[in-house]
Amino acid sequence: MKTIHWFKFSSPQNFYFLAGKMWPWFAALATALTLVGLWVSFFVAPIDAQQGQGYRIIFVHVPTSQMAMFIYLVMAGWAGFGLAFNTRLSGMMASALAPTGALFAFLSLATGSLWGKPMWGAWWVWDARLTSTLILLFLYLGFMALQASIDDPRRSDKACAILALVGAVNVPIIYFSVKWWNTLHQGLSVSTKGASMATPMLAGMLIMVVAFWMYAIAIALYRVRNIILERERHTDWVKHAVA
Amino acid sequence: MTGASRPIGVANVMLAVFKREVSLGMRQKGEVLTPLVFFVVIASLFPLGVGPESALLLRMAPGVLWVSALLAAMLSLQRMFATDYADGSLEQMALSTTPLALLVLAKALSHFVLAGLPLVLMAPVLGLQFGLDTRALGILMLSLLLGTPTLSLIGSIGAALTLGVRGAGVLLSLLILPLYIPVLIFGAGAVEADAAGLGIGGHLSLMSALLVLSLFFSPMATAAALRISLE
Question: CA of B184: which chain A residue's CA is closest?
Fold first, then answer.
């Protein structure tokens, strides 16, 4: 049996080529699953008894909200990994994830307000989950701003790593304090106790969740390739790879 | 610090750093007074913006005063490490045998004394302008007293991260303000809860919890951030 040297891929050069092989697959999966998920959510899932057709935005809203929170944790995980093991690639992964996370947080707020208008009669309410997603967006923007303002990439990676970790510790504190501050949002639609939705609705949503996962992985790999090229531009292998 | 051959206790070093920061701050009066004036001006802008209706102002007072205090406390954060960074004494602190986190803690506490405590003392005067009664003023002061040390401690992380970075002032506020939100919620919430006839024990307990958490964790994060800035 051939042994795999996992640490081989912690070198940016090797990871560049691995990511190059991987991202088209994730992108293809994301496209296929999005098409299936959208088909299920528009044509298979029944009309909601209370919310009519308007509820269908849930198929985009819930996955984006989940991804927005989850990507922050993954980003903080990579950042902590980078601080602990001093690997260059970890910081690059964290910075590759940040724009995607910010995008998902923004989309979550945008789809939420589009959903809120017909359901609550308001584009925006100062409810716990909306507010904490907004704060999450601010945390992403702070991360990206700090990164943009430090020129030395190694220093910027480390400083951003500390910020991401501090943010990750604060996310639950912020969430619960905002939750206590005000709550108006409808209860969780998906929980471990069993979902309060029809099966096709749940299926559509889960497919969309997986599709968004695939998209996030594909775009992060694609972006990390560009970051690697940019940071390693002085090396010979980049000159060969680009030539 | 004195170069004596006998070992100096950690507590003495921390006290020395604390005293040094406070006396440096007191020598530059502007450093203490400017945030205080800023606090007064910001809080005075709100009635001009929303109108002089006393019922509305009374309703808004805890939030307005807390937000103004939060912004004023943030104003002087940048100076917490900037001068020591410029003249090299920060590097000496990083090299000293005393853990950097403890020196940072002393600096953060001195920031509280110089920037937070004056706000606590000034708040009741502004509260009177908003029509708060004596009881509410007391609770406002108590919540500020519990909250402003937390602001200094969390703020020190941001000050360390943005040390020597271009556009540090605006960046610092973008990094730190989202992290200030829990303190703001419970601080202003305590005054509002009491006005609504609810107990304030929960709010004050949570604020104390935030203070204890940040007392423990933020000096470590700040020290790590400072070492990165000093590289």
Answer: A177
